[in-house]
Amino acid sequence: MDAFAALADPTRRRIVELLGRGERAAGAIVDEFDVSAPAISQHLKALRDAGLVEVRADGQRRIYALDLAGLDEIEAWLGRVRRFWAGRLAALERALRKPTRRKR
What we know:
This protein has 104 residues and is of the alpha+beta class. The chain contains five helices and three strands, in the order H-H-E-H-H-E-E-H.
């Protein structure tokens, strides 16, 4: 699953936002939602597969954190899109501001 497909789901976006504040144990993530632990586990798996989160073992607990490399890929894509549209929108603005001649 690619990063954008993973982030299309609102629960996964919320998990990413939670992890943006710091790493959390899987149980602490589950506590933030009104869905089952297995459902959150599936969301975490999708985020791991997409390269957006990483997990490490701490005894019996699993600690999740954002995978900055995955976020860097999204940021790079957004940068390319911004550069593409910035020039075109500036050209559109210039064209719209250009005075038009009235036909008599």
